[in-house]
Amino acid sequence: MTILVTGGAGFIGHHVTRALLERGEQVIGLDNLNGYYDPALKRARLGQLAGYRGYRFIEADVTDRSGLAALFEAEPGIDRIVHLAAQAGVRHSMIDPYAYVEANVLGHVTLLEAARRLPRLEHLVFASSSSVYGLNEGLPFRETDAVDRPNSLYAATKRSGELISHAYGHVYRLPQTALRFFTVYGPWGRPDMAYYGFARAIMAGEPVTLYEGEGLARDFTYIDDVVDGVLRVLALAPDPLVERVRVLNLGNRRSEPVSHMVALLEQALGRKAVLRMVPRPAADLIATWASIDAAHDLTGWTPETALDAGIPRFVDWFMRYHAVD
Q1: CA distances from 280 to 147, 234, 246, 268, 276 (A)
Q2: Tens of pLDDT along 169-226?
Q3: Phi-psi region of 170 (alpha: psi -120 to 50; beta: other; left: phi over 0)
Q4: What is the model's pLDDT at position 325?
Q5: Which residues contact 278 (CB under 8 A, 6 or more apart)?
Q6: Active-site residue numbers?
């Protein structure tokens, strides 16, 4: 059996790949190593995987139709796909909208077109986002909620991926699961995420930018819990005759104030943050909070890592990776 992980040099992709390799799976990683954030971090993640048997990395883009078709023709034994390649970042979608349409919509279609021709494909699991809940105000967010009011282009492209997959599930009976991730954090994380940027600012003595007003909170989900959820779901393919595409939340079951996360960073780093308050951008949600009943009922998955435990683990890695004394 062979598993393809797209976005394999990314944050979640790196951790998922390592977990698969540690249990003896054959894994092909695919990533274009783009410059949205420092590619040196992506290469360092790949360096952590280099010693595993059964691993092969391909530097390629999911929008490359001929390249993807050639890969699948050369690897007809691919039976599962974890599709994590995407253009991430809510606010950056207002700066470079075309990158989001290309990676998250065209890239999704390109992958599905190639995947539907794989003779042994059992399950395709792909990354959606809590951002699809958009302007919804009712908490916690449930998979049955309406998601037709996105508040960012990023959210719109991730919801587009879900709808495109629904069409492919209907037409081609392609077994798929969409995972709506909720603010994933931890070691080897993305530098554009708030917790990472806050850590760098605190250590540099620079201002930490927080949004004005009350209620800013996130369902912070630790990376190890997310990986456990991904692997549990990957093992349980839906029946495409019953579900065109299964949709599941992967979150930590609680919404915690961003200010609490900053306080935990201060404690772990041993320094106080210099706070700067600014108006909240329209593209940012006030709060996120996942109902995970569906994922738990299907797989038994329950996240185990509280923010109070996860942030110190991230800081320990952060200090070592950046060689901070």
Answers
A1: 22, 36, 33, 26, 12
A2: 999 999 999 999 999 999 999 999 999 999 999 999 999 999 887 789 999 999 999 9
A3: alpha
A4: 53
A5: 209, 210, 211, 212
A6: 154
Q: What is the CATH number of domain 2-182+223-251?
A: 3.40.50.720
3-state helix/strand/coil string of the chain: CEEEEECCCCHHHHHHHHHHHHCCCEEEEEECCCCCCCHHHHHHHHHHHCCCCCEEEEECCCCCHHHHHHHHHHCCCEEEEEECCCCCCCHHHHCCHHHHHHHHHHHHHHHHHHHCCCCCCCEEEEEEEHHHHCCCCCCCECCCCCCCCCCCHHHHHHHHHHHHHHHHHHHHCCCEEEEEECCEECCCCCCCCHHHHHHHHHHHCCEEEEECCCCCEECCEEHHHHHHHHHHHHCCCCCCCCCCCEEEEECCCCCEEHHHHHHHHHHHHCCCCEEEEECCCCCCCCECCECCHHHHHHHCCCCCCCHHHHHHHHHHHHHHHCCCC
36 φ, ψ (degrees, to nearest 5): -55, -40
Write the pLDDT tens digit of every residue in 226-249.
999 999 999 999 998 899 899 999
Residue with tokens 């249990």: 23
The residue whose two tokens read 């299964």 is 246
Which position has the token pair 């590619």?
Answer: 39
Phi first, then psi: what are they for 131, rounded to 5°? -60, -20
Structure tokens at 245: 């595409």
Low-confidence stretches of the chain (pLDDT < 50) are none
Break the chain into its structural domains and give their ranges. Answer: 2-182+223-251
> Which two three-digit tokens encode residue 53?
């048997």
Q: What pLDDT, on the 0 to 100 scale, is given for residue 254?
A: 94
CB 154 within 8 A of CB 222: no
Residue matched to tokens 């908490």: 139
